[in-house]
Structure formats: structure tokens, C-alpha cells
Amino acid sequence: MSVGIDKMSFFSSDMYLDMVDLANARNEDPNKYLIGIGQKKQAVIPNTQDVVTMAANACEKIIDDDNRKKIDLIIFGTETGVDNSKSAAIYLQNMLGLSRRARAFEVKQACYGATAGLQMAKEYVTNHPDKQALVIGADIARYGIKTPGEVTQGGGAMAMVVSSNPSMLEFEGPSTFYSDDIMDFWRPLYRTEAVVDGHYSNDVYVKFFKNTWDEYKKITGLSIDDFKAMTFHLPYTKMGIKGLRAILNEADEDKQEHLKQEFEYGRKYNENVGNLYTGSLYLNVLSLLNNSTDLQTGDRIGLFSYGSGAQGEFFSMKLKDGFKNDQLADQIDTDLKNRKRVSVEEYERIFNNWIPIKDGDINLDYENDSADFFLKGVKNHQRIYGRK
């Protein structure tokens, strides 16, 4: 029996900020953002969307009457939680009408949370093959107006159904992991914006990738030649390139060119959406599956997950017959194409209208939100959600 990802989906805002516009407004050479950072567009998240609503909007694309009855484990990976006690998974369970006879909880370790959830789901389904698990990676990346990290903002949600005999991807073999207590990125409880040491974080990211990759090769006997593609956590796509370059010297020239080409397919969604934190790796995977022209059933892909603070993990998955969902791929392409381009001034207004961390009722202008699930406001310390 195999266990893996049976379905995947993605949701983000219907607005974006063009990185050329941002560069011009910040008196920067656009190529610093387009090439140096590797980003073209950035999702702009309105205050009527939070991680719960984005997750619900992603899930409705892959939840049907069949798997709704089978899902009895809901794991929500996020570092943009809506409550310091109650998990986003409980809200999501209710919004989607999932079984009350389910475990539902939230996982936090920076951008690694969804991977932790995925690995827990793997073990659960292995022991309960007639059941399914729903794993979420949803976040909103905020660093602040005119900060060095501004170009690496974004947001969205990835949803994954884990099952036995999956249609898309199956887990293969062991994982390798590495952790250390470091301060490369963090967000204190009193802030909605992250604090980051960018250069340090880049160095740690590559170090953790090399550590987990080298350990993986030792315990499995596999090499770079055994992989059709490598996927990465992509807070910005140039970071993944740095990781890939760290091991390219292990391959011959033909293999190097192939891996670089697959990376280009894999970063298509990320470079047009921006940073999803916990969802970034899995958006990279979905982009690879939907856009590559050379993948085949049985191909092995590598996945490197990284969460600042810090935790890294490397594992592999093999492609199943239904790894590409053409209908969902077309829908994602259409949604990205039809987004509204906002000006820098509009983006700054939306950013500054974010729900503050303070007491008080809030009514939001949700009528203009085109998504099926949305946040209406806050009343008596409770978030009020709505559905079209």
C-alpha cells in the first residue's frame, strides 16, 4: 500500500502588485527584483481574507462528498494564526462541514509547519488506510512598507488531501531533518510584521539543505541522478536557485541543464504570487506538476522544506498516474491571469488597513471581496466569517 497526496489545490487574492512598479516607486533598478530576487508579481491580500478563509477557498476545490466522509484529521500549518489559543483548523472544519469526529489542530514552526503536518498525516494514514487527512499551508507574508523584505511579501493557501493509494504523489523512503536554535527570522506576538536577518537566513537555508541532502544520500544510497526534479521552499525564487546550485556540481552538464529547466517550471506560480511561508514549497511542487512538459509517472522528485528558527527536512516523492490535473491547472492559470493589478498607492493603503492587534469591534467592506469565503469583521473578540 502506498500513501501520499491524492489532491492539491491553491488559492490567493485576486489582486497583485507588479514588481517593476514597486521597484520604480522605491527608486530601485527593476532587475534587482526581477532577477536578483526572482519575483515578478506579488499577491496583495485584503483584510477580508485571512488564513482561515484562504484555506477554505483552496479546500472547496478538492473537497467533495466522498472525501468529506473520510477526512478525520485536519492539520493546519501556519505562522499567521488568527488566535493564540484556538486553532485555524477548528474554524476550517466548521466552514467546510467536515466530520466532528476528527482531530483538528494547528502546527507552527515558521515555514515548516505544513511539512510537519504532511509527515504526521503520512503516519496516520499508514496506520488508518481507510481514512484521509487534510493538510493546510496558509500564510500572509508581511515585512512592512519600504523595508528590505517588502519585495518578498505575498500570501495564499495550499490544501492537500493525504490518502492511501493516492492519485498524485506517493511518499518514498525516509526523510532527513536538521534543526538549530537561531534567529534568522521571527515575529514577536506584538507585531503583524516579521523581523528578518536576510543574509544570515540565506546562508542558513543553504546550509540546512546541504546537511539534509548529504544525510539523505548516505542513508538511501541515492544520488542527484536519481531525481527528475528538485523542489524547494521558495520565500522568493532566487533562494531556491541558490539551493539548487549548491548541489549541481554532483551532476553532469546534461543533468544540470535538465534540473535547471525543471526548476523554471516549478517557480512559475511562486514568482507571480510571492511568499506563502508554509505553503511555498507545495506551491512550487504544484507549479512543477502543472507546467513541466517532461514529467512522467514514476519519476522521483526531491522536496526541501525549511522553516526559520530553524528546521529543515528533505524527502522524496514519486509521481502517480494522476499527478497532473489539467482542469485545476487551467483554473489556476485563469485566476492568475485575471487578477487586478493594483498601484503602489493602492497596495500601501491595503497593507496599512490590516486588522490591528488590539481590542475593539471591526466591520470590514467584504461586499467587494469576490471569494466564496471571506472575513466580515470582529465582534466581541470573535472573528465573523461569511460565505457567498
Automatic annotation (TrEMBL):
The active site is at E79, C111, H233. It is an enzyme of class 2 (transferase). CDD domains: init_cond_enzymes (cd00827). One of its GO terms (molecular function) is hydroxymethylglutaryl-CoA synthase activity. Residues 2-164 form the Hydroxymethylglutaryl-coenzyme A synthase N-terminal domain. InterPro entries: HMG_CoA_synt_C_dom, HMG_CoA_synth_N, HMG_CoA_synthase_prok, Thiolase-like. (3S)-3-hydroxy-3-methylglutaryl-CoA binds at D29, Y143, K242, N275. Pfam families: HMG_CoA_synt_C, HMG_CoA_synt_N. Residues 178-258, 268-352 form the Hydroxymethylglutaryl-coenzyme A synthase C-terminal domain. GO terms for biological process: acetyl-CoA metabolic process. PANTHER family: 3-HYDROXY-3-METHYLGLUTARYL COENZYME A SYNTHASE, HYDROXYMETHYLGLUTARYL-COA SYNTHASE. Its EC number is 2.3.3.10. This is Hydroxymethylglutaryl-CoA synthase. Keywords: Acyltransferase, Transferase. The keyword Acyltransferase applies. Coiled coil: none annotated. Belongs to the thiolase-like superfamily. HMG-CoA synthase family. It comes from the Bacteria. The keyword Acyltransferase applies.
